[in-house]
Amino acid sequence: MLSVAAEWFSTWFDSPYYHRLYQNRDYAEARDFLSRLLTHLHPKPGATLLDLACGKGRHALYLSEQGYGVTGVDLSAQSIAYARQFAHAQLHFHVHDMREPLPYGPFDFVLNLFTSFGYFEHEAENVVALRNAAATLKPGGKMVIDFLNTEQSIRELVAHETKIVDNTSFHLYRHFHNDFIVKEISFLDEQGLEQRFEERVRALSRERFEEYFRMAGLRLAEVLGDYHLHPFDPATSPRMIFVLKK
């Protein structure tokens, strides 16, 4: 089992069981969101976009299909190896830790989508990651950070559930601990051995995000509350989608 201090994402995201557990994610819904977001942001033809924490590249591929130059980066070598099958002259993928300066860009837009932030053990690392991303933006460029509505997520936390995917029973236990929303995942592998992993995302409030943004030199333009881009309502919105300007 991973220790609490371990960087859980560096192991879990490269595990085949991670991709098995989440294989039924609604990519049609994600593409609908990206389509609305592009309409909302109205990038100019040929604009350059960074997909920060791009995973296996499906969303970066969709963005490139809309005519933009797209670079996708992710810490998971396995995910980037998969994503590179989609690469072409206007779509590139790189293994990269967002805590390190980005040698790519500059970009008109930086997108960090589907709660791909707040994983780090030390809070200062979140600010470092934001500063690195902001440094790749062109003057006047925009960044979008899509995060869960933390207060609602904690309020509606499902403590335990079991998901059966391809004959694997995943037991999921969720709780709030030391400023993190934690999901413990246990299952038996093909050899009948118990495997345990964790997912941990820092329970960041809007106010704390705004503090980060100030430290990263980013100006908050608006906050949207869901994938249909309605205004953010702290009591009812499932998401906090921040649109920022450099």
TrEMBL record:
<dbReference type="InterPro" id="IPR041698">
    <property type="entry name" value="Methyltransf_25"/>
</dbReference>
<dbReference type="Pfam" id="PF13649">
    <property type="entry name" value="Methyltransf_25"/>
</dbReference>
<dbReference type="InterPro" id="IPR029063">
    <property type="entry name" value="SAM-dependent_MTases_sf"/>
</dbReference>
<feature type="domain" description="Methyltransferase">
    <location>
        <begin position="50"/>
        <end position="141"/>
    </location>
</feature>
<protein>
    <submittedName>
        <fullName>Putative methyltransferase</fullName>
    </submittedName>
</protein>
<keyword id="KW-0489">Methyltransferase</keyword>
<dbReference type="GO" id="GO:0008168">
    <property type="term" value="F:methyltransferase activity"/>
</dbReference>
<keyword id="KW-0808">Transferase</keyword>
<dbReference type="GO" id="GO:0032259">
    <property type="term" value="P:methylation"/>
</dbReference>
